[in-house]
Amino acid sequence: MKSKNINNERMKIINSKVVLNYIREKVSVSRKVIADEVGLTQSTVTNIIHELIEGGYVIETGKGESDGGRRPVFLQLNAKAGYAIGIELNVVKITCILTNFKAEIVERIEADTNISEGQEKVIARIIDLIEKIIARSGIAKEKICGIGLVSAGPYDREEGIMVNPPNFPGWFSVPIKNLIQDKLNIPTYFEKDTNAAAIAEHWYGDVSDVKNLFAMNIYDIGIGGGVIINDQLFRGFKDGAANVGHMSIDINGKLCKCGNTGCLETISSGVALLDKVKSEIKKGKKSIIEQEVKDIDDISIDMMIDALNKDDTLTRTVIDEGARCVSIAITNIVNLYSPEVIVMGGNFINKCPIYKDMIIKHVKAKKFPPHYDMKIVLTDFGDVQGALGGAVIALQEIFKA
């Protein structure tokens, strides 16, 4: 009898989460539609909704048109039911956001990473940002459901450890999740930044209705990917899937920090393109950028993008070659994963949308099956994509059945 009661209670929890997640997906929906779509009886749904309203998770928002019977009452998530914090840590910047229960951003705060100061000071800075954003919001700490921290791989997700990421020199097996969780006493989750990007797009992006997508992020420093297959994040062995930045494009190319040669990010990331532009100018190629600096080494990524926008021939040639190499990687991604959509993000491509257009041009020149209608779009989340993914990961724990 005890086992039966436990099973019944477990089933009740699962059904409640199924209903709650369905309301999240549909944004606004009636009890009848929920019952029809999730396969539960009307009475079961009515009881679940009653408990979700009593618990503050769901609210009634108004009535729809009658189809002959009683007018349906629409339901939505209660934005104030709980809150989540998302943190994206990269080598340049720490982005911290606080979202409500609908994953709408309530507060945002940023700080320079100052990676050269070492891991202890960087982690202390993350903790300080979290404490500041909670204080600024005026929200009680008890209302924070969790913290989702995202950063570069390789990593140990279960243990919450950064395992010597190539762009974080000296960060050997850093237990970053526990360091933050133990200090703040808030449940903390750790995920790769590009996996978090894929999760954000799949849960709340314009492509949230797509079952198979690939998130490809091109940063100033590095390139990464995350893949959703049949509505599930695909992790692979040791969470190593979709590591597109270290896909070998040129076997005779530049040595990568990972130890291999010719990785995509040594060719097509923002810094890689900048290094190529500088190298070509030093070889005697002409560019309008030269007018802005006394020393070629002082050329910045922003200067390079500005020159591209002014149709500088050298800059356009270099960046177009980077786009061609990205298109090779995308061809491999399409043949491996067959996504319906590739969502492009990352701080470099967000500030250089022409790069996306160049990539699409080269992808369209590739040969795919005639029925294949894969789309490439730019994220709508801009530079908070990763942090939003972190917040969603924290919220997911409530919705997961």
From TrEMBL:
Transcriptional repressor of xylose-utilizing enzymes. Signal peptide: none annotated. This is Transcriptional regulator/sugar kinase. InterPro entries: ATPase_NBD (IPR043129), ROK (IPR000600), WH-like_DNA-bd_sf (IPR036388), WH_DNA-bd_sf (IPR036390). The lineage of its organism: Bacteria, Bacillati, Bacillota, Clostridia, Eubacteriales. Keywords: Carbohydrate metabolism, Kinase, Transferase, Xylose metabolism. Belongs to the ROK (NagC/XylR) family. Transmembrane segments: none annotated. GO terms for biological process: D-xylose metabolic process. GO terms for molecular function: kinase activity.
